[in-house]
Structure formats: structure tokens, C-alpha cells
Design brief:
The chain has three helices and no strands. The protein has about 90 residues and is mostly helical. The protein starts with 12 loop residues before the first helix and ends with a helix.
């Protein structure tokens, strides 16, 4: 028989088994790596201290803030609007 007419077999069965074994080992390693990262990040969130809430603002602080607001003339903001309305 001629060698050119023979059907080539893909790989021997031993090589197929080795390839499948390495794929399974790689998949297990990836799963372990992802699980380890998930566990590590979960541990970090548990040990991270929560920020302390701000104390409530007292009434005197609010009054000081209100006094600090500078309101020059409330009516001056609307002069241009009033002029436009009168021209209608």
C-alpha cells in the first residue's frame, strides 16, 4: 500500500490522555486561584475599619454658618427679569 493513501490518525491515545490531564490540572489551578483571591479580598473587607460617623451638627454651628452667608441684595437678582417682563 501507498503511504499517501493512508488516513492519518490525529494523535496516539497516550498523548490525548496527557492533554486532557493537563487541561484538568490547569482548570483546577485556575479555580483555586480565583477562590484564593475571593477569600483574600473577603478577609480584607472584614479587617478594614469602618469610618466613624460625623457627630451631629449643633444648633450653634448652624447659626454661625447662616450668619456667614452673605446676602447683599435679594432684589438685585431680579431686576433684569423685571425689565424683560415690563417690555412685554
Amino acid at each position: 500500500m501507498d503511504n499517501n493513501n493512508q488516513i492519518q490518525q490525529p494523535e496516539s491515545e497516550g498523548e490525548n490522555k496527557k492533554t486532557i490531564m493537563w487541561l484538568i490540572v490547569g482548570l483546577v489551578l485556575v479555580i483555586l486561584l480565583v477562590g484564593g483571591i475571593y477569600w483574600y479580598l473577603g478577609k480584607q473587607q472584614e479587617t478594614t475599619p469602618q469610618s466613624t460617623p460625623q457627630p451631629p451638627t449643633t444648633e450653634s454651628n448652624l447659626e454661625r454658618e447662616l450668619d456667614a452667608i452673605n446676602i447683599e441684595a435679594e432684589d438685585s437678582d431680579f431686576t433684569s427679569v423685571d425689565a424683560d417682563l415690563e417690555s412685554l
